Input
Amino acid sequence: LYLHIPFCHTRCHYCDFNTYAGILPLREPYVRALLSEIELAGKAVQLADGLPRRSRTIFFGGGTPSMLSVSQISRMLNACFQAFSVDNDAEITLEANPGTLSQEQLEGLRAAGINRLSMGAQSFDAELLKTLGRIHSPEEITQAVHYARAAGFTSINLDFMFGLPDQTMQHWRDTLERALDLHPDHFSLYSLIIEEGTPFHTWTAEGRIKPGDEDLCADMYEYADELLQKAGYINYEISNWSLPGHHSRHNLTYWQNLPYIGMGAGAYSSFGNSRFSNERDPLAYIKQLKTGHLPEVEREVIEPEQAMAETAFLALRTAIGLHLPTFEQRFAQPFAQFVGN
Output
């Protein structure tokens, strides 16, 4: 299950996600709408005998889910447990901005059932954080990790970005070394992509900024991979490294092309041979849920051949690759026969 929380204090200069600044008064109405969608979605995908559908993971993404109160997060979690058959050992992740976390809040989130924290650190360089439009400081990253450990979190991910404007290899080395000192359980490292409609796209076109070139990005990636593997982290997916047993079960759902239900404004789902998405505008999303109907706006039927192709190429992002017996069991066709066709 994926729950999209679209609220942000400010919108980062590189971000093209469905997120919004300046709409904080909508938080409670939005949560109530999401509670309605969770209930409706649970009924829509329940098993033939009326029993709830099993859920292995829950992921609060955004936006900045940590801008909601502990009570609001707890209410949505309880709704998921009522509408779905959530595994006892389910991985329950919350994305957070290091600058929005307190010790008390993290203790409340852990008590509510969140057992994995994913923090958008991005860099330990203060100037690069300003360039990105991030609101936190390097010191707040360190503080947030210490708070999370004290609150009982045993699975913490840190996100970092490379190929940033004016970012040198020395910047990258310093960031990774400071991050390793914090001993996170998981790293997600992403190369900057200049997306249309973002300030970075405009500034790049105007020549005001110049992202790292491909050769530098490749060097940064290779350096990170070597450093992290020496430190005991496993590169299990192109952009992700984890200590043993701490890989993101939720994100592997996407790379293994398994079913997922996305809820919230602009969320996508892949379920029952279809891909479908929700109304993007938070206010329109809220209004739609008040009518008692799911806020779906688009649907695409996935034919078997497309599903097989997508399963194969998504698996190539992972270290384990495509498991041929599982592919044959799932699609009632050997992979060699599919390729031969």
The longest strand covers residues 85-96. The chain has 13 helices and 14 strands. The mean pLDDT is 95.
